[in-house]
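Journal club prep — side note

Before the paper discussion, L.F. wants everyone to see what a predicted structure for a comparable chain looks like in C-alpha coordinate form. Sequence:
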Amino acid sequence: MSAAPKDLPEATTLAIERTRLAAERTMMAWTRTAMSLITFGFSVYKFFDIQRESSGTEHKAIGSREFALFLIVAGLLSLLFATIQQWQSMRLMRARYPSVHTPRSLAAILAMLVSGLGFIAFWVVISRQ
Protein backbone atom coordinates (compact mmCIF):
# COMPACT_ATOMS: atom_id res chain seq x y z
CA MET A 1 0.00 0.00 0.00
CA SER A 2 1.25 3.50 -0.74
CA ALA A 3 1.90 6.14 1.88
CA ALA A 4 -1.09 8.29 2.75
CA PRO A 5 -0.96 11.78 1.22
CA LYS A 6 -1.20 14.68 3.61
CA ASP A 7 -4.30 16.20 2.01
CA LEU A 8 -6.52 13.09 2.21
CA PRO A 9 -7.81 11.32 5.31
CA GLU A 10 -6.46 7.83 5.87
CA ALA A 11 -9.96 6.35 5.42
CA THR A 12 -10.14 7.83 1.92
CA THR A 13 -6.70 6.51 1.02
CA LEU A 14 -7.67 3.05 2.25
CA ALA A 15 -10.92 3.20 0.29
CA ILE A 16 -8.98 4.07 -2.86
CA GLU A 17 -6.65 1.13 -2.24
CA ARG A 18 -9.62 -1.23 -1.75
CA THR A 19 -11.18 0.03 -4.96
CA ARG A 20 -7.93 -0.50 -6.86
CA LEU A 21 -7.59 -4.02 -5.48
CA ALA A 22 -11.20 -4.79 -6.42
CA ALA A 23 -10.42 -3.70 -9.98
CA GLU A 24 -7.38 -6.01 -9.93
CA ARG A 25 -9.50 -8.95 -8.75
CA THR A 26 -12.05 -8.24 -11.47
CA MET A 27 -9.30 -8.15 -14.08
CA MET A 28 -7.93 -11.46 -12.79
CA ALA A 29 -11.41 -13.02 -13.00
CA TRP A 30 -11.73 -11.91 -16.62
CA THR A 31 -8.23 -13.22 -17.33
CA ARG A 32 -9.14 -16.64 -15.89
CA THR A 33 -12.32 -16.70 -17.95
CA ALA A 34 -10.45 -15.76 -21.11
CA MET A 35 -7.76 -18.35 -20.46
CA SER A 36 -10.46 -20.99 -20.00
CA LEU A 37 -12.13 -20.03 -23.26
CA ILE A 38 -8.86 -20.03 -25.18
CA THR A 39 -7.59 -23.33 -23.83
CA PHE A 40 -10.98 -25.02 -24.16
CA GLY A 41 -11.23 -23.84 -27.76
CA PHE A 42 -7.79 -25.14 -28.59
CA SER A 43 -8.48 -28.42 -26.76
CA VAL A 44 -11.70 -28.97 -28.70
CA TYR A 45 -9.85 -28.34 -31.94
CA LYS A 46 -7.06 -30.79 -31.08
CA PHE A 47 -9.46 -33.46 -29.79
CA PHE A 48 -11.52 -33.49 -32.96
CA ASP A 49 -8.39 -33.19 -35.10
CA ILE A 50 -6.97 -36.35 -33.50
CA GLN A 51 -10.35 -38.10 -33.75
CA ARG A 52 -10.63 -37.18 -37.44
CA GLU A 53 -7.13 -38.50 -38.13
CA SER A 54 -7.81 -41.83 -36.38
CA SER A 55 -11.29 -42.52 -37.74
CA GLY A 56 -11.15 -40.71 -41.06
CA THR A 57 -14.62 -39.19 -40.54
CA GLU A 58 -15.47 -35.58 -39.97
CA HIS A 59 -18.51 -34.07 -38.27
CA LYS A 60 -20.16 -31.44 -40.46
CA ALA A 61 -22.85 -29.85 -38.27
CA ILE A 62 -20.30 -27.26 -37.20
CA GLY A 63 -16.64 -27.82 -37.71
CA SER A 64 -14.33 -28.17 -34.76
CA ARG A 65 -12.08 -25.56 -36.33
CA GLU A 66 -14.86 -22.97 -36.48
CA PHE A 67 -16.01 -23.74 -32.95
CA ALA A 68 -12.44 -23.49 -31.66
CA LEU A 69 -11.93 -20.18 -33.45
CA PHE A 70 -15.16 -18.86 -31.93
CA LEU A 71 -14.03 -19.76 -28.40
CA ILE A 72 -10.53 -18.36 -28.91
CA VAL A 73 -11.87 -15.10 -30.33
CA ALA A 74 -14.38 -14.86 -27.47
CA GLY A 75 -11.51 -15.24 -25.00
CA LEU A 76 -9.41 -12.61 -26.77
CA LEU A 77 -12.33 -10.17 -26.95
CA SER A 78 -13.13 -10.63 -23.27
CA LEU A 79 -9.50 -9.82 -22.46
CA LEU A 80 -9.61 -6.77 -24.67
CA PHE A 81 -12.81 -5.42 -23.11
CA ALA A 82 -11.63 -6.18 -19.57
CA THR A 83 -8.31 -4.42 -20.21
CA ILE A 84 -10.06 -1.38 -21.62
CA GLN A 85 -12.35 -1.26 -18.59
CA GLN A 86 -9.37 -1.63 -16.22
CA TRP A 87 -7.42 1.17 -17.91
CA GLN A 88 -10.42 3.48 -17.91
CA SER A 89 -11.20 2.93 -14.24
CA MET A 90 -7.56 3.39 -13.21
CA ARG A 91 -7.22 6.53 -15.34
CA LEU A 92 -10.38 7.94 -13.74
CA MET A 93 -9.09 7.11 -10.25
CA ARG A 94 -5.71 8.72 -10.97
CA ALA A 95 -7.41 11.82 -12.36
CA ARG A 96 -9.76 12.11 -9.39
CA TYR A 97 -7.10 11.47 -6.75
CA PRO A 98 -3.79 12.60 -8.28
CA SER A 99 -2.03 12.76 -4.91
CA VAL A 100 -2.51 9.02 -4.29
CA HIS A 101 0.06 6.78 -5.92
CA THR A 102 -1.63 3.86 -7.70
CA PRO A 103 0.82 1.25 -8.96
CA ARG A 104 0.54 -0.29 -12.39
CA SER A 105 -1.70 -3.29 -12.73
CA LEU A 106 0.03 -6.65 -12.57
CA ALA A 107 -3.24 -8.25 -13.63
CA ALA A 108 -3.14 -6.25 -16.87
CA ILE A 109 0.38 -7.51 -17.55
CA LEU A 110 -0.80 -11.08 -17.00
CA ALA A 111 -3.74 -10.40 -19.33
CA MET A 112 -1.29 -9.34 -22.05
CA LEU A 113 0.64 -12.58 -21.59
CA VAL A 114 -2.57 -14.61 -21.83
CA SER A 115 -3.57 -12.68 -24.95
CA GLY A 116 -0.22 -13.70 -26.45
CA LEU A 117 -1.17 -17.32 -25.73
CA GLY A 118 -4.53 -16.67 -27.36
CA PHE A 119 -2.97 -15.22 -30.51
CA ILE A 120 -0.64 -18.21 -30.75
CA ALA A 121 -3.59 -20.62 -30.39
CA PHE A 122 -5.54 -18.60 -32.98
CA TRP A 123 -2.62 -18.74 -35.41
CA VAL A 124 -2.16 -22.50 -34.93
CA VAL A 125 -5.85 -23.21 -35.57
CA ILE A 126 -5.92 -20.91 -38.61
CA SER A 127 -2.69 -22.15 -40.15
CA ARG A 128 -3.38 -25.91 -39.91
CA GLN A 129 -5.74 -27.49 -42.38
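L.F.'s comment for the group: The longest helix spans residues 10-55. Keep this in mind when we get to the figures.
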